[in-house]
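quick one, 306 residues, struct below
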Amino acid sequence: MKKKAIESPKNIKKKTTSKKGTTNKKKTKKVDNKTKKINQLKKILFYALITIISIILIINVVDIFKWVIDTKKTNDLINSINESYTIKDQEDTKDVKLINSPKDKNNDYWNYIKMPFKSVDLTKLVKINKDTIAFIHLNNSNINYPIVQANDNKYYLTHAFDKKKNRNGWIFLDFRNNPDFTDDNTIIYGHGLKNTTMFGTLKNLLKKKNQNNKDNHVIYISTLTNDYLYQIFSIYTIKEESYYITPKFKTKEEKINWLDTMKKRNVSSINTSVDENDKILTLSTCQNNTGDRIVVHAKLIKMQKK
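---
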């Protein structure tokens, strides 16, 4: 009977080594596959990031391009309609009506009412846009525009005077207001554009040097039938809210409280008396892209029929 050959230690070692080598190869292969997957994922994320950045850049470039086009259209439109009207000084006639005149003869009111009206014939402007209800003028500013009114407060945020789509919008009256400027608070809106069109120069009233010039303390409004002169009593900036654009008040106390609040917000050196019998004009615009509002309140001091 033959005896089974006994394997030598060398052979045993070789076999053991061979098994470990196979295991190590499998582990190395798994690591390599994992590394490949990670690298592939990194590449995907990298290209995805590049794609997102590219899309954002393209959108911004397109947005800037559209802004440049809209700005040019706005400037061309302004130049075009400037030929359709003339602003002329209109002295007081026998029909002039002084509004809520104070008893104190030292009140600045008596100096401002000496200023002539700024009268505009709106006939041609109405033919261009039937939504035209008035014209606004502020001294030492670019604010010389026909005022329009739509059925809501959105349309003229994105449409120009010619009713064409334009992100620069136009100057418009709150749709809740009567177009004859008889409400407790008549509100006019416009974008505060960096190119200084629309209400872009309204922010200048926040500067002390402009407040020191009394010519800048008045706002002129000319409608189809009347000319109005308003005296500013409050200038400030505020976060977006609806309180300051309240068009009508239910009670006398409600209006007094509102006026007190608007007076307290005033950050200018202008000190104008105002009470519940005054008719108020409010100008509102956005301040750059902060979402804040620049607000100007004025009271009606005189008017007359055209």
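The first strand starts at residue 87 and ends at 90.
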